[in-house]
Amino acid sequence: MFTKAEATRSLIQEFNDLFSTHKFQEAARFAAPGATWWMSGLKENNPMAGLHTFEEHFKHVESIPKTVIDWDTVEVDIVELVVDADGEKAVVEVAVKIREDDGEYRYKNNAVLIIEVKEGKIQVVKEYVDFAPFTKYIKEKEEKRGKA
Known about the structure:
Layout: H1 4-20, H2 24-28, E1 31-39, E2 50-53, H3 54-63, E3 74-83, E4 89-99, E5 105-118, E6 121-129, H4 132-147
Parallel strand pairs: 1-6
Antiparallel strand pairs: 1-2, 3-4, 4-5, 5-6
Domain SnoaL-like: 12-123
Pfam families: SnoaL_2
Protein name: SnoaL-like domain-containing protein
């Protein structure tokens, strides 16, 4: 029999597996009704910054044009996952990489997520990410596309 902490660890791993394979609607089923996703940063630098419902967050993720992010080239791997003894709060470090046509990874960044879980459902995600590397990556990608 799973402890609450083990159940939460399993839930987060399964959630990340779905998210990292771009099955966003399936990943969203792990959220409780009214669940929220907060992302660090300023709106002028990152349109996803601030507090949103899970539905709003995933709609935004899915609406990003393929010319900006081709989700088939994005990898999100758990680096570290720590769950409290009650199984209600987890701290997750993820490594995000975007693979280019030549197979190289020109964007690599880590983010830290604090995830609150109650009754087997995600209630809150707080995502702390340095958005500067992504802004630089997009700028370089646009410059390269402009030269092509």
